[in-house]
Amino acid sequence: MKLHPAKLLLLQILVAVVALAIWQVGATVPIGGDYLLPEFFFSKPWDVLSRVVQLFVSGTIWKHLWITLTETVLAFVIGSAGGVVIGFWFARKPVVAAVFDPYVKMFNALPRVVLAPIFMLWLGLGIWSKVALGVTLVFFIVFFNVYQGVKEVSPVVLANARMMGMSERQLFRNVYWPSAMSWMFSSLHTAVGFALVGAVVGEYLGSSAGLGYLIHQAEGVFDVTGVFAGMFILAAFVLVIDWFVTRVERRLLVWRPQAASEEN
Amino acid sequence: MEIALRQPGREGPAPGAAPLAVALDDVSISFAVKGRPVFKAVAPTSLHVGDGEFVAIVGPTGCGKSTLLNATAGLLKPAGGRVAIFGEPLAGLNAKAGYLFQQDALMPWKTALDNVAIALEIGGARRADTLAQGRDWLARVGLARFTDRYPHELSGGQRKRVALAQVLVRDPKILLMDEPFGPLDAQTRQIMGTLLLRLWAQDRKAVMFVTHDLEEAIALSDRVVIMSAGPEARIIGNFPIDLARPRDTADIRLDPRFHQLHREIWNQLKAEVAKTYGEEMA
């Protein structure tokens, strides 16, 4: 069954309205002398909204957004570059891959959050400790995808390219690279998401700026309104980045059948 | 008996004149699979293909037709015997041959035009030239309007046409075809066959065409070579096809001579097909 787009939008808005209404009523209307959602713990929708507006109007939010964005982009770029290089290297040199295999598995098994304090010790409270945390997350996603992409090149496409007379360099450019990139781009959403997680978690654990810092500060003084305001801004921020990534993906993977069917 | 069996494959054009396009002499092919005895796919076999000759290799599924083709292409090293291309021993990949694969071999990330143009580009040709020639070849295979399509936007038959253009644009002296029209439906196969013959007639390359479809083999080729069921497959029959050219692969099937040839060859192939299935059922 398919809903009419306008009807769907209406229902989607309805969900938000109902949720906000329950929140507002729970926080302001006492039921039998007790509030269902005490303002101290849950704040109020209107307060959160005015805090968000205030953050934007006063301009304080821009600095934090900028810091978080910078960390995310740096983590993504560095992690991806590392993942591509190492992924290619391992895929083309099975001996190297075999030697490093247990260590790759070990590092990947480690919950990356525990590395945050180490990075903070090594790199300080500035952006680089957050970038490092994001890199460790992004690296493995890109690494595994590139590795797979090189390994999974169709043997027929490869044989055909060889019969054409391609040299190793030409094979790299025309066959291995596009194949690896298609795998990497298919994990673009996850990789960017993890870069952001690294940045925000890093900020949360110790920093002087960024969205994670903002939320942590508000939490430290029991400013629930501030925490919710930070969360909403963060969610909106992720949606904007995700929209941007989708655009990039569609441009880069025009040759893939899925790209067409995902369009709606 | 042994000699009699090996003889058929050697009946190419008279030796001594121009060197043979492909000369496989006592070529055998084995596969080593870990933990199992060596699998002898093809017993020592000889096959000669003259320059400009269209040879079809027919045999039951899994008889090693494709491995023989891969050995000629240089993709597979034979366990024994000699492979000579235009009189010279083959070392590494066969640079004189173009290979049309059964499966999709186009680069999915390149448009039809780029897939054809790249075949020339790697030889160092100028991009403008490669694009011009690529367009020209796509037009020749009837895809002039589809140059900007990606492989997934084309039908199976159209993809085959692109692959054919990709192979022919390099102007190889030898054309190796491994059941190229196998995945296509019956009508498309006939159309592709006629297209292939038309393009081939323009400069008569040597062709080795592997198929399990006897009718297709007769309709296309100058000579049909029959291989026995594997393992240790051999060439067990060699039939010159004296049907007049140019041929239309659909119309030729109505020719009485076609039926006569078909009957003769089928009688020999039948026993081999029965053998393959007999062994599988046992």
From TrEMBL, chain A:
Pfam families: BPD_transp_1
Highest taxon of source: Bacteria
Main location (coarse class): membrane
Location in or out of the cell: Cell membrane
Signal peptide: none
Topology in the lipid bilayer: Multi-pass membrane protein
Listed name of the protein: NitT/TauT family transport system permease protein
UniProtKB/TrEMBL annotation, chain B:
Protein name, as recorded: NitT/TauT family transport system ATP-binding protein
Domain named ABC transporter: residues: 22-254
Record key words, sorted: ATP-binding, Nucleotide-binding, Transport
GO molecular function list: ATP binding; ATP hydrolysis activity
Signal peptide: none
The keyword Transmembrane helix belongs to this UniProt entry's keyword annotation: no
Species annotation: Ancylobacter tetraedralis
Pfam family, one: ABC_tran
UniProt superkingdom: Bacteria
